[in-house]
């Protein structure tokens, strides 16, 4: 029993010595792998920043009082156009901006009012989608950058094999293999995070756009109501 325990202990110690951190893996990947991982880290920071900033902006844009259109209806029915404009300016949200644009065109043909609202809606959508396309770019570029690191790592490994003179040692190939593996994993992680973030923002933006369209239709119906 004592001999068996003595045989187990070196095995445990050896397994503990083989444990390696992610940072150590990156550092062991050589200068090429470090540069690639640095680029991927910057892309990850940019993607996370854009997602958080846009998420908060889109979330705020969708916070509209349910009684907003009822108040607008009351003011317009009473002929208080300026009061309705002030109410829209006070809310200062995409939906309110569309209604304000429509109110400012009251008295003109309904087609002109509709056109003005549509143009204002395009501007509001552009504001909501600001920098979101960058996430789509990162989701596609990050894996390709990671694969570039893989190719660089394989080139390094092949170069070491060519210079080995027939004596191949796994330690000679470690830098290239570390570069190949870590950059691939890093690129895929950044790409997946960016892709999920992009699609989540698109879904939330579509909800705001739907709300804007519904409010625009309600406002136009309000103008068509008999006095």
Please write out the topology.
Elements: H1 2-17, H2 22-28, H3 30-61, H4 68-77, H5 81-91, H6 94-104, H7 110-128, H8 132-162, H9 170-224
Helix pairs in contact: 3-8, 3-9, 4-5, 5-6, 6-7, 6-9, 7-9, 8-9
Short summary of the structure?
With 227 residues, this protein is mainly alpha-helical. The chain has nine helices and no strands.
Could you characterize what this model shows?
- The longest helix is centred in the C-terminal third of the chain and has 55 residues, at 170-224.
- This protein has one domain.
- It is rod-shaped and about 95 Å long.
- 30% of the residues are buried.
- 85% of the residues lie in helices and 0% in strands.
- The chain is built from nine helices and no strands.
- The protein starts with a helix and ends with a helix.
- α4 (68-77) runs antiparallel to α5, α5 packs antiparallel against α6 and α6 runs antiparallel to α7 (110-128).
- It has helices spanning 2-17, 22-28, 30-61, 68-77, 81-91, 94-104, 110-128, 132-162, 170-224.
- The protein is mostly helical and 227 residues long.
Q: How much helix, percentage-wise, in residues? A: over 70%
Model regions low in confidence, pLDDT < 50 over at least 5 residues:
5-18
Oligomer: single chain
Task: Indicate the overall shape.
Answer: rod-shaped
Subcellular location: Cell membrane; Membrane
Domain MotA/TolQ/ExbB proton channel: 94-213
Family: Belongs to the exbB/tolQ family.
GO biological process, one term: protein import
């Amino acid at each position: 029993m004592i001999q068996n325990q003595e045989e187990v202990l070196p095995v445990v110690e050896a397994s503990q010595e083989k444990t390696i951190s992610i940072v150590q893996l990156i550092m062991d990947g050589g200068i090429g792998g470090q540069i690639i991982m640095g680029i991927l880290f910057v892309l990850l920071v940019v993607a996370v920043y854009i997602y958080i900033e846009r998420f908060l902006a889109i979330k705020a844009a969708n916070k509209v009082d349910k009684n907003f259109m009822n108040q607008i209806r009351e003011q317009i029915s009473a002929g208080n156009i300026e009061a309705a404009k002030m109410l829209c300016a006070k809310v200062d949200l995409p939906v309110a901006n569309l209604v304000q644009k429509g109110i400012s065109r009251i008295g003109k043909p309904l087609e002109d009012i509709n056109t003005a609202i549509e143009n204002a809606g395009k501007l509001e959508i552009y504001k909501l989608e600001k920098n979101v396309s960058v996430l789509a770019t990162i989701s596609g570029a990050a894996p390709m950058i990671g694969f570039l690191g893989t190719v660089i790592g394989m080139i390094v490994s092949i170069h070491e094999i060519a210079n080995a003179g027939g004596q191949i040692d796994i330690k000679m190939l470690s830098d290239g293999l570390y570069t190949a593996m870590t950059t691939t994993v890093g690129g895929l992680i950044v790409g997946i995070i960016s892709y999920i973030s992009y699609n989540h923002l698109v879904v939330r933006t579509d909800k705001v756009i739907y709300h804007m369209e519904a409010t625009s239709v309600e406002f136009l119906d309000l103008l068509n109501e008999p006095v």
